Amino acid sequence: MVEMEEDNEGMDSKTRLNQFCQRYCLRPVTRKDILYSTTKFGNKQYQSIVRLNCMESQEYAGELCEAPKDAEKSAAQQALKAFQAVIASLPAGKPVKKKPPPSELDEVNKQIADAENPALTDKVKLNALCMRIAKRPLEKGETIYETQQLGVGKNPSGYQATVRLPCLPEDWAMKLFAGEVCQNKQAAEQSAAGIALKALEEDQALCALAEEKVPKKPSEKEGKKAKGKSWKGWWVSKGGPDLPRELVSEAPVAATVLEWKGSFGWVKLSQPLEHPAASKREGKVYLHRQDLKDGKELLVEGEMVFVSLYTDSMGLGAAETGSGQRGGLT
Known about the structure:
By secondary structure, the protein is α+β, with helices and mostly antiparallel strands. The chain folds into three domains: 13-114, Double Stranded RNA Binding Domain (2-Layer Sandwich), CATH 3.30.160.20; 122-211, Double Stranded RNA Binding Domain, CATH 3.30.160.20; 220-323, CATH 2.40.50.140. It has helices at 13-25, 68-82, 84-89, 102-114, 122-134, 185-201, 204-211, 220-229, and strands spanning 34-41, 45-52, 58-61, 144-150, 158-164, 176-178, 246-260, 264-269, 284-288, 304-312, 315-323. The strands form three sheets. Strands 7-8-9-11-10 form a five-stranded mixed β-barrel. A three-stranded antiparallel sheet has the order 1-2-3, with helices on one face. The two termini are 42 Å apart. Pfam families: Dicer_dimer. Residues 126-206 form the Dicer dsRNA-binding fold domain.
């Protein structure tokens, strides 16, 4: 969880940002001067972006937080970090009555324009790229960081992190990206994110997928009509389980649950399937929560289910048609 910094007078980052903007602009700020926009990711993760319209519309993104208010404070905190040099150069106390000479204002504005947003870390950039590829917000468990301490005792020699991205299509969902050895866990995770980000940006197919526009969502009548005939040609505005589908087999096929990750999981077919997509993901078949029967929210590892199969642009997927006895892999 992100820790919110306070100054000696106990002011939070949003209050300090307001005061800084007033001192810089030499006037009271309005609601339109400082705007916060907050996005929810998964069940309990929020990220805010603060837009400073009073300062050339600069934008700063905060870290992921468990509450919307904390997300806004994190964004304000990142903006304050970006303007540390400018804040230090302003006169202490109340704003001066006269504006600084134009030459000084030009220099300050140049510093603002040249400043790099410190909140746009490799982790944030990687998360944004993955959302563009998946065409939806990511849920918990779809970007997995694991950090290992190197050395023993109270003075470890460093930390190394890996990141796996199950939200990505096909073989990319199984790849593991290892970062360099760093002095702390945060830096180790950023290193792993940077290496993963570089690999994704160098892949032409993934970049093309990220640039694809989301198809327009059909009307309710059109959606029901298309779904009533078959899955082929039916789509909605999101990605993942809502990509256009082509039915492979209506007959129930037995499968065993390999793992479940909150809103989706992977199953393995009991009998080999002769289909070009069957060899992808080492034989694993994607199954999303919305394709479970009877309002179920999850499956248990080792559980046997009966599914119908489909393909989409990501590979082979399954929709539950019934349950069997729980057991091991066959």
